[in-house]
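Researcher: Can you fold this with 5'-O-[(L-methionyl)-sulphamoyl]adenosine in place?
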Amino acid sequence: MSDQTFYVTTPIYYVNDAPHIGHGYTTVMGDIITRWHRQRGEDVWYLTGTDEHGQKVLRKAEANGVSPQEWVDKLVEEEWKPLLKTIDIANDDFIRTTEQRHFDGSKAFWQDLYDRDAVYKGSFSGFYSVGSEEFVGDDDVVDGEGEDEGHKISKLDGSRVEHMTEENYFFRLGDYQQKLLDFYEANPTFIQPESARNEVISFVSRGLRDLSISRSTFDWGIGVPWDDEHVMYVWVEALLNYVTAIGYGDDHARFEKIWPASIHIVGKDIARFHAVIWPAMLMAAGQSVPHQVFAHGWLLVGGQKMSKSKANGIRPDEIVDTFGSDAYRYYFARALTFGSDGSISWEDISARYHSELANGFGNLASRVAAMIGKYFDGVLPAAGEQTDAELSVVDIVAESVRDADAAIEAVAPQDALAAIWRIVDGLNGYITDQAPWKVAKEDPDSDRLATILNTTAEGLRVLAVLLNPVMPKSSAVLWDSLGAETALGALADQRIDAVAAWGQLPAGSTITKPASLFPRIETAAE
Ligand code: MSP
């Protein structure tokens, strides 16, 4: 392993509105992946933040009768930062594009592009979508129908476009077509999954035009360093957050240690910006390109992409208030395939909560602790000789840990959880087969009872460690109930590569019954 940091980012979110679970989804997945890598002992940096400039935010502030600065300050403090607490995110940094470090870094980067002759002045005439803050080619514009009658619409995402003619600065994106295609070819995992990669390659293969990268008809943005009549096009400015947050322009050593990003996690709607414009900008500035852009699918509600503008946006706290943040995190990681679109529903959340979390996992933890309490006064007994049944548990654990780790490496948290759940199911099956309550009655003097309960407690130790990146709160409760802190240290310090080694919980540890990890929830579907 190099001493390079494992650097993970989410998109920075527009603060035109409050967050919904689509934003929460990306942020939770990034959090699970970074927490897992931390427990592998890697040096990790997890960045998220907010994208505060541009016309979309400006217009929203105007519609609400406040200045854009007042608007973004209020939304970031009251909505976006609290979201991280609601869904239990352990980010290392939060960047706002209205911060001085971002102004300074962005200007430095632009100056560098200018000095290298990657930018020139021209004039732009064409369509622009404020909804997606994107220039839309004439071929992608159609007449609107229904509610959009009388407006021009972008075929790309159905948003309304406006015609504009402006003097702009342009970035020589057209020069990068072949360089990008060569780069994708040489780095097959740069853009994943395959569907996103294919789409990006076919887009670039069709040809790239130079990109207008400044705006001169409003001033809510960062001024172009050599021309204060212009502000930076919001996308080009926003992408720079990934470098301005880690010292680009003012802390060279820090920047060198963390850059390039290991993985930019984005929704597929913005894969092109990250896999085409961003690497071209970095190449133009002589910087290294990120290792990977991972484009995940959309959360669908009632079959449609969930979004605020369609009024089907669900707030994360609507789910967390009922099921808790652990179940929220578990659900999105387990029920959807990261990289594909997926439907979610309240009924499905409730069903998985009860069958997988309450009955499958929570019940296992409380039964084991209750039996150790009843038969051994809450003191973990030493295991006797292992039979085939115990050896099989040890095997399941070793294989699951290997598979889960490989799944995280492949950015497939759903497969990691499926692998971990083989331990949950394996332990439940083992208890049913071994029937410790029967052994206690029929063969109380043998060491079988001790062996069975020691084996299940060890299994729970492994589960606490493996589930900590996904469900930190219940994992901490479980760790505590196993008395593991005293013998093994903090849960966060347990290493994935050492977790499967058997017999770590020392005999004599105090086992207490945990508070119910996932209490039954009686609320009806809403
Ligand atoms: N500000 C830009 C990103 C700049 S990054 C340099 C932006 N912001 S956004 O607020 O619109 O957020 C887009 C991101 O939110 C998506 O890429 C995705 O990560 C997430 N999602 C928003 N709606 C979503 C769904 N319905 N489903 C899944 N994720 C979604 O674009």
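Model: Folded with 5'-O-[(L-methionyl)-sulphamoyl]adenosine in place. The pocket of 5'-O-[(L-methionyl)-sulphamoyl]adenosine is lined by residues 11-14, 22-23, 25-26, 51, 238-239, 241, 266-267, 269-270, 298-299, 305-307 (CB under 6 Å).
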